[in-house]
Amino acid sequence: MKREDLGDLTAFLMVAREQSFTRAAARLGTSQSALSHTIRRLEERLGIRLLTRTTRKVSVTDAGERLLARLVPAMSEIEAGLAELTEFKDKPAGTIRITTSEHAATTLIWPALETLLPDYPEVHVELSLNNGFVDIVADRFDAGVRLGESVAKDMIAVRIGPELRLAAVAAPAYFECNPAPKTPFDLSRHRCINIRQQSSGGLYSWEFEKDGREVRVRVDGQLTFNASPLIIKAAQAGLGMALIMEDIVAPMLADGSLLRVLEDWCPPFPGYHLYYPSRRQPSAAFALVLEALRNRG
């Protein structure tokens, strides 16, 4: 491979990821015209078109998709190899990028980082909050944090948190006007606060289980949110029932501002795991962060 090939391939990968010459040029620290020339030169050298350009969007051709399938893992290996060089320094250093949910970031990751990072000023951490599925290899994350049951099989997964439970709750004022449900099937007669899923855009079906029987219920109500703080506020205001992580509403259950129902239908389930590609050799900085999170499991 010629030296210019690597640079041209890097430019192509960035344009494909950003789907925009303007954003890709900004990420690469070059001009849009220079980047366009680089891509055109690569396409001429290969004798095939890799990108389709319109006034609004840049998309990848079938040939470009085939090249990306080879290029993304190769570039990830190169980046991992460069990250490993930080092990030769006196202290761990470098940036660790983690995709995680807001709940895991707040309850597990931040408490660990708050204690760890003051002693390691050369270690930088970027948290990207996203409740949906993320391809950590394609999106250049070092690791992801998700519930244990949703981690891909080809990843190394490390438990970093305890088992979790959901809690079906509502304000006392709500139950003064509405009889408490005895089973999940009673929810069809209740106003509920829906949850919009970030990954699919659909509404979350409330999940319950009892004696090995799993039940999913589609609920209805006036309100739909994709963030737990607003769900809690709406439930406390008596605007409907909510299904939310038990640890988030524990203070409200303790002070009586929320009441819990269907507790026997909400068993524990596997908690959060940190996962990363099995072929990647962790850097010293990554190993440090991993160990800090593992200790909270």
TrEMBL record:
What biological processes does GO assign it?
Answer: DNA-templated transcription
List UniProt keywords, sorted A-Z: DNA-binding, Transcription, Transcription regulation
Spell out the SUPFAM superfamilies in the cross-references: Periplasmic binding protein-like II, Winged helix' DNA-binding domain
Q: Which residues form the HTH lysR-type domain?
A: 4-61
Q: Which Pfam families does the UniProt record give?
A: HTH_1 (PF00126), LysR_substrate (PF03466)
Its family remark reads: Belongs to the LysR transcriptional regulatory family.
Q: State the protein's name.
A: LysR family transcriptional regulator
